[in-house]
Please model this.
Amino acid sequence: MLAALAWRNLWRRPQRTALSLASIAIVTGLLVFMLSFQISVYDTMKEGTLRIFDGFAELQPVGYADDPGLDKAIDDPGALVHEATAIRGVAAAAPRVNTFAILANGPRSYGAAVIGVDPASEAKISSIAGAIRVGRYLTAADTDSAILGDVLAANLKLGVGGRVTLLGQARDGSVAADVLTVVGLYHSGVPELDRSILEMPLARAQDTFAMDGAANTIAVGGPTLAGVDRALPALRAIAGPSKTAVLNWEALEPALNDGIELKYATSMLLYLTLVAVVAFIILNTLLMSVLERTREFGTLLAMGMRPGQIGAMIWIELLGLALLGSAIGLAVGGGATLWLQHTGIVIPGIAKLTAQFGLPERLYPRLTPLSALIGPGAILAAILVGGLVPYFRVARLTPALAMRAA
Amino acid sequence: MRTAPMPLLLVLSFAGPALAAPDADTLLKQTYDNYRSTSSQTTVAMTIHRPTWERSLQMKAWTRGESDALVRFTGPAKDAGNATLKLGQQTWVYNPKLNQVIQLPASMMSQSWMGSDFSYNDLSKSDDLITDYTHRIVSSGQDGGHATWTVESVPKPGAPVVWGKVDVTVRDDFVITGETYFDQDMKPARRMATNKVGVLGGRTYPLSMTMSPLDQPGQWTRIETSDGKFNAAVPAYVFTLSNLQNPRP
Model:
């Protein structure tokens, strides 16, 4: 009976109720869309960035991250690669030799990272293989070939077919020197990578740098970042016996992780402000209506209704308002999100920025149970908690005083 | 080490009578003047020690004036023939396997030289401890019958140096017995100690010196000089790129 009363009361002032519903619906819709967009873009950004070079996780000798060096190595990378790729969620594992060397072409020379890679598995993890602008990527048949970033190549005045000289230090401390033929130039869109990395065949790097079949790291990739994250315990289990550590994506790209967390934190402030504003608007409207209706409540009390019942009736009015409003908001916001999820959104003028994070030009929001329900949930909770104020106010009324109220 | 070119340090020369009450500037200046014979030819062994391995390299070094030096490795076989030439601020390396001379980019100058605890910068910095720092004597002591003084050197404002300060301990016959490099937070970063002083080529000379980076326990590089000729004329062709690549006998 209380619910029926509440429902009828709501529509005694249709204009006010419609306005309240609209404000709840607009904010709910906005929250649904913004959260869906943000969560999806950040996920795409994480995967995009990690796909360029890092991979979704990495096996490396204990202590390598703090103080990398050729002498910290995985002696039998083949066995670990084999075991890692057998784990559910892991699609590829790429052994790498990582070092620094002086690259020279005639009188020009630059310091650069030199990575020995297994072309087949590397191509499944790093998008550099697909970012070749001139020439081709490394193949399993290559022996003395190298690919390098287009900026690095321009600095060295090297083109495809050119010969690049490497001079560095081998694992045993002796001088490591080699001459390689450039077969391809890549452009990843990330300036730091394009001007600082040369990739060469793994076996050749192991030979040149006296690695004796060892690798420094094994990059791990899979169809999804979430899948590889779930595979972390299994990776740790196979890595443990060989004194190898497993780094997850947060450890590989700490700056990216921090950046995303900072963005979430600042966005949360905005969302909380929206929720608070709409909650106060609704609460204000409700308090006004409670004041207006003091005489009505007095009459109800005089007729024998208990103050708690009147409070409950007001609270149910509010519940109805909030439920209906957020349902409309969810429908509109969710609908818009689903539509844009299909067509995508192009934000003009950010192509450079998006390329930096390995993002496509067209961004897609993605409606998930989480992104759909956080906003409406927060608004419902805020309004219903705020609704306790009029509830207690009504509960204190006495019939005689209330009926004489202005 | 950073204060003197590495090959020059290999030929540190100390001559002249002991002074009684030194002034910090004069003491260091005198020590440096004695470092630098106008030229030198030395035979040096370098031992690089790491927690997991140790290796020893043999080399011959020639120096001319303050900043020109040629170092050619003679052993072991794996490294023999590699050479480094420094002329003024420029540094070239020669690798026999490639038969190529490569000029070092400025960005690589702080990298390790031949895998040791010395950087290429150590090869190329000459007397900046004299010119870029202010000096004062902070303590005195005794070392094997010699008086010693420790000179604290603090960079002059704006000087292009990486150290917070350098403490140098010098004997009364101008032999450096120790050097401690402090980082910008005034924490000791690396330390060089003279292990053995003897007579070489007619002068009192630190025959063995060890450099230890203090943040890497179990890691050091020792240089031992076994043969030296000082102030003898070194032909000009020694310090040329063609001699770097095709050494004349």
In short: The first strand of chain B starts at residue 39 and ends at 49.
